[in-house]
Amino acid sequence: MSKSKSTNSTRRARILVLHGPNLNLLGRREPEIYGTASLADIHTAMEARARVVGVQIESFQSNSEGELIDRVQVASEEGIEFIILNPAGYTHTSVALRDAMLAVAIPFIEVHLSNIHARESFRKHSYFSDIAVGVICGFGPSGYEIALETALARIAHSA
Fold it and tell me: Would residue 112 show up in a list of annotated catalytic residues for this protein?
């Protein structure tokens, strides 16, 4: 991964979209719950929108908790300004990923394709919601678009 830092005032803002376990199976995994859009479809739509406003967007998916934690830590060194996080199954289990998000102090929005509050009881608890800028759930792939618009507005406001 490149770790270049720019002092140029025309530097593009950067957003990282992190996808947790099993999201690589979107489009074919339980489409009645998660829809038919693939992760590539979601990223392509987000990338097109970010490009319009001159923001660089990066997507990273892993089924490994350690890889997600490593990517969060590197994001801090790379100057990532905002994170959109779908921790997937780690939502309900990962204190370590939560600690990484706290450590880097990069603002983030928690996103879920399904409404986690309308599902099994164990899915109703999140280790991230209380430290996130906001939580979006139940809107399918549109949730990522809502999160992106919010991130873009926050970045523009802080510029």
Answer: yes
| Dihedral angle, C-alpha 129, 111, 117, 65, nearest 10 ° | -70
> One of 34, 90, 127, 144 is an active-site residue; which one?
34
> Which of these is catalytic: 19, 43, 92, 112?
112
Q: List pLDDT tens digits, range 68-122.
A: 999 999 999 999 999 999 999 999 999 999 999 999 999 999 999 988 887 778 7
- Of residues 54, 49, 127, the one with CA closest to residue 88: 127
Q: In CATH, what number is assigned to the domain containing residue 116? A: 3.40.50.9100
Say if 6 falls within a structural domain.
Answer: no
Q: How many domains does the chain have?
A: 1
Whether 117 is catalytic is no
